């Protein structure tokens, strides 16, 4: 399953992409990723190519924030992250999946502006070459 959604906080728009590659097992591993809007666009193309391949995670949630700097989280970023975590929690509750607190999601989250860091974590490749 793939889903793209718009998240609007304080009249600014961010993108949220969800990619699920698993059966409805209640214990599916979830990886929230918070990154730039540009990295979000790239992940929307890359993650579906991982479908059916052996990987550590089966549920990927990506929040893309315009102008995001992972080394300097703003109040705006923090608000968006709270809304993002609420979406993940609601989805999991609505689909009878194991619940995560905001603190648990925070501990699972990869926060980076660097595409190479994301690719290390999700094992993405491009044209057969490792990024």
Major beta sheet summary:
5 strands, mixed
Which series of helices and strands comes N to C?
EEEHEHHEHEE
Q: What top-tier CATH class fits best?
A: Alpha Beta
CATH fold category name = Rossmann fold
Helix content range: 25-40%
In total, how many domains does the architecture comprise?
Answer: 1
**Kindly, what is the distance between the CA atoms of the first and last residues, rounded to a whole number of angstroms?**
25 Å
Work out the number of β strands. Answer: 7
β content, as a range? 25-35%
Shape: globular
Radius of gyration: 14 Å
The spatial strand order of the largest sheet comes to 1-2-4-3-5
CATH architecture: 3-Layer(aba) Sandwich
Content-based structural category: alpha/beta
The residue ranges in which pLDDT falls below 50 over 5 or more consecutive positions are 126-131
Mean pLDDT: 83
What is the tally of helical segments? 4
Summarize the structure.
With 131 residues, the protein is of the alpha/beta class. It has helices spanning 37-46, 75-94, 102-108, 115-122; strands at residues 2-9, 12-20, 30-36, 59-65, 110-111, 125-126, 129-130.
